[in-house]
Amino acid sequence: MMNQKKTLIALTMVSVGLGTVHIFSNSSLGAVTLESLLEEMVARETVARLPEPAYTCRQFSSYDRNSTEPGSPTWWANWDRSYFVRIEENNGAKEHVMMDADGPGAVVRIWATWHGPGGGQFSNGTLRVYLDKNPRPAIEGPTEDLISKGLLAAEPLSESVSPETEYRYRGHNLYLPIPYAKHCKITYQTDVLIDEGARQGEALYYQINYRTYEPEAKVESFTMQGLKDAKPTLDRVQKMLKDNDRSGAAGSGKHTLEGIIAPGEAKSINIDGPQAIRSLEFQLEAGDLSQALRSTVLKIAFDKTEAVWCPIGDFFGTGYHIRPHATWYTGVAKDNTLACYWVMPFEKKAKIEILNLGSQDVKLVKGLIGMGPWKWDSRSSYFHAVWKQWPEVRTQSNEKAQDHGAFDLNWITVKGQGTYVGDVLTLFNTANTWWGEGDEKIYVDGEQFPSHIGTGSEDYYGYAWCKPAFFESAFHAQPSGDGNLKPGFTVNLRYRALDAIPFTKSIQFDMELWHWAATTMSYAPTTFWYARPGATWDVKPDAIEAKRPVPKAVDDIIHRQ
Q1: What percent helix, strand, coil does the chain show, rounded to 5?
Q2: Distance CA 474, CA 494 (A)
Q3: Which residues pair with 284 in a beta bridge?
Q4: Within the chain, which residues score under 70 in pLDDT?
Q5: I need a surface site. Which of 80, 149, 355, 540 has the fewest CB within 10 A?
Q6: Which of 515, 499, 433, 432 is nearest to 461 (CA)?
């Protein structure tokens, strides 16, 4: 184990050793660099076009390796910790390989949580990042210092959540990109017992999202000297993300959409293109605001393609209760204003419609649509958002069940070409225990085994250990965790920037639902993606579910005799 002072010295020595290896210049050769990735992270319009250079996004994780075949009896194996690619001997020490991938590429997100043998305190082992087959690590240091204590970057690129939760029970997130030209290997070393599944030893849960660029792409590998040189850009990006900087995001032109919407009626506006919606701001009033947030639907069609159909509260990441929070792409203010800053381009015409499917009048107190110019081209993509609900999904107790009581729910399947950029999960739990033991399983372009398979629903959303405390950050938030460990309402969200998932033929997003109790609950995901014209998907508008009374108490779901 290293102390922080020794770690900093080691990092400096490594950076000197690697600093002259790569000579690509971002400005002269168009290389992907640390700075270009940081700039991309805060350029909201980037995800609205197919990526250039093209890349895939995949995930290494500590998922239970007994999960070998979708639908098989072992598919829901759940010891999702301390599983690694392999173990290597290095100078007499065991290094557990977490990631091993050829480049050109970039690590774009690392999430982890941990505990020591027998549930004790984490030993804080050493994390090492080796680039381009160099035997000396480009990054080396105590795991928690590197991921969430600011040794590499400040908040929100390096942080643990929730700050209201005891540190040992937090999820730890590193969004600082680590580009590499040829190869990346990440290892973990600890001096205490570590075994597969952590049945006796130290438990390390982890997820690593990484890009692999097309072979001809030029990538300048990360160095500590490069990180030091990028400090002005890094500081500016971190401040923008921490402040959720809206300057320039709202667009130069404005349209309004306001007034009272009677039951069964709608208000709409048509806008000529080529342009891009840069921001949406809405404020609703209704006698039952919670029901209005679910039964008032945002519809958007681009060039006659109906691309958005979603209850307005779910679209803005607050579900059917106002829960103020702010992220890079959305925000909910204390005055009930709902805002989003997704860039939504179109070529000829956009139609924005607010439809009242409920039984009460809804007053649209504020409706502002920010617009900006857009040059439509062969990489331009339409923004999409859809919602679906399982209103009374029956879970099983995992005790003594061969499948542990788990099953996969398909959130969305898209056919076509595009980029997956995030989701919001709104639910009402009806039992005094955890609902989200299940893992995400994402299949890209017809994969038989998912290239993203996770370690738990809360891990996917950036936190850990089922904790209910509020948190907000640039790309993930828990506006409400009231229903995490007891009956109540929960909403989790994750938005993607550098970890967006491109697809050329299809994407299938499944989430395993594994509750710790046999109960009935409501469960409603919203998914967001961009796609080229002609894409199709399997979630259709569901007016019946949007009209359904929202659950506010256990008895609203579990109908007692």
Answers
A1: 15, 40, 45
A2: 9
A3: 364
A4: 1-29, 397-404, 560-561
A5: 540
A6: 499
Contacts of 7 by beta carbon, 8 Å cutoff, 6+ apart? 140, 141, 142, 145, 151
Cis peptide before 502 (omega within 30 of 0): no
All residues at 6 or more sequence positions from 401 whose CB lies less than 8 Å from its CB, including other chains: none
Task: State residue 156 phi and psi, 5-degree precision.
Answer: -95, 5
Rounded CA-CA distance 89/263 in Å is 68
Alpha helices (H) along 153-249: 224-229, 231-243
Report which of 364, 338, 337 is spatially closest to residue 261, judged by C-alpha positions: 364
pLDDT of residue 400: 54
**Helices (H) then strands (E): counts for the chain:** 10, 36
**Burial (Cβ within 10 Å: 0-12, 13-18, ≥19) of residue 270:** exposed
231-243 and 34-41 helices, crossing angle to 10°: 20
Give the strand pairing for 418-429 and 501-503.
antiparallel
**Strand bridging mode 452-453 / 440-444:** antiparallel
Say if pTM beats, i.e. exceeds, 0.90.
yes
**Contact call for residues 475 and 157 (beta carbons, < 8 A):** no
pLDDT, position 397: 65
If you count them, how many residues does the chain have? 561
Map residue 48 onto helix, strand or coil: helix
Q: Look at residue 405 and give its three-state secondary structure.
A: coil
- Here the tokens at position 432 are 């005094």
Return the structure tokens found at 350: 């956009």
Compute CA 47 distance to the chain's CA centroid, rounded to the nearest angstrom.
14
Cβ contacts of 127 within 8 Å, gap of 6 or more: 139, 140, 141, 142, 143, 146, 147, 186, 187, 188
> For residue 196, which amino acid is it?
E
Encoding tokens for residue 241?
A: 């993300």
Gap between the Cα atoms of 13 and 478, Å rounded: 40
Return d(Cα 517, Cα 530) in angstroms, integer.
36
pLDDT the model gives residue 265 = 98
Q: Name 106's bridge partners.
A: 179, 211
